[in-house]
Specification:
This protein is mainly α. The protein has one domain: ABC transporter involved in vitamin B12 uptake, BtuC (Orthogonal Bundle), CATH 1.10.3470.10. Helix content is 72%, strand content 2%. It contains 11 helices and 2 strands, in the order H-H-H-H-E-E-H-H-H-H-H-H-H. It has a two-stranded antiparallel ribbon with strand order 1-2. Helix 1 packs parallel to helix 5, helix 2 packs across helix 9 and helix 5 packs across helix 6. The longest helix has 31 residues. Pfam families: BPD_transp_2 (PF02653).
Length: 289
């Protein structure tokens, strides 16, 4: 029982990171009906920026994270602005365009930071917390707290602000939102910017947990994508539930099937999706009819 609880605790912190990645995927998808395949690459950019500002310029970890989020938010705006002319012409080209941006970001990452990775020390000192015989790393609690705060702020933004309400309207009906005068292009740009910021937050937080390398975003992007699908693509609560579920499942698979943990994780994921194709909370996306 104790081993099981320890495994769950270990999976939840990484699952919180997957949830942040999934939130970025879902936010863009629910607003535009577009899967941003450059999202994982933006995670890598965020991880490298945060680690660079933290290790090289000696900024405090929190400030390094804020700067990384701001820079990647601008990258998200640039991606949306370049792809915007394609939205009303050929939406498939827009989808392919995100793949192209991912390739460009991959190349830039290697040009700027090289092909080798870097280890990021934990910004939180101190021994693990002992609770009922369970060992909980302090940094894991920090990750959970920040991920929870980011999720709450996103929900409040979407439900309590005019710009968030406009994005919700665009998500419900693209044509109707345009008819009542909502600037759909601006809503799409904000979705890309916030999604990129969430990607940077995930990348920055995971640095001290994993090894920052050019392939980091690929691994996190796939897990975050799976989490978004599992919870219901485009669903905000679904992204959170899916991320935590994938994290715990990944942790159990790593503990019991060490050489085949990735395979086991995605086999279980595939089985669940076959039973419920629309995910736990059902798919949420813009109506383009």
């Amino acid at each position: 029982m104790q081993v099981t609880l320890q495994t769950i605790i270990g999976g939840i912190s990484l699952g919180a990171v997957y949830a942040l990645v999934a939130l970025g995927f879902s936010l863009v998808y629910r607003t535009m009906g577009l899967v941003n395949f450059a999202h994982g690459n933006v995670v890598t950019v965020g991880a490298y920026l945060a680690s660079t500002f933290y290790l090289s310029t000696k900024l405090p970890f929190a400030l390094a994270m804020i700067v990384a989020i701001a820079v990647t938010g601008v990258i998200g705006l640039v991606i949306e602005r370049v792809l915007r002319p394609l939205e009303n012409k050929d939406f498939d080209l827009m989808l392919i365009g995100t793949i192209g941006f991912g390739i460009v970001l991959d190349a830039l990452i290697i040009m700027i930071w090289g092909a080798t990775g870097r280890a990021v020390p934990s910004p939180v000192a101190g021994a693990p917390i002992e609770l009922f015989g369970l060992r909980i790393r302090t940094y894991d609690l920090v990750v959970l707290a920040i991920a929870a705060l980011a999720t709450v702020l996103l929900v409040l933004f979407l439900s309590r602000t005019k710009r968030g309400a406009a994005m919700q309207a665009v998500a419900m009906d693209h044509e109707a939102a345009t008819a009542v005068g909502i600037n759909v292009g601006r809503s799409n740009a904000i979705a890309f910017m916030v999604g990129a910021g969430l990607a940077a937050l995930a990348g920055g937080l995971v640095g001290p947990l994993l090894y920052v390398s050019p392939t980091l975003g690929g691994a996190l992007g796939i897990k975050g994508f799976a989490a978004a699908i599992l919870g219901g693509f485009g669903s905000i609560p679904g992204a959170v539930v899916g991320g935590l579920a994938i994290g715990v499942l990944d942790s159990f698979a790593a503990g019991h099937f060490q050489g085949y943990s990735e395979l086991v994780t995605f086999l279980v994921f595939t089985a669940i999706i076959m039973i419920r194709p629309t995910g736990v909370f059902g798919e949420r996306t813009v109506n383009r009819a």
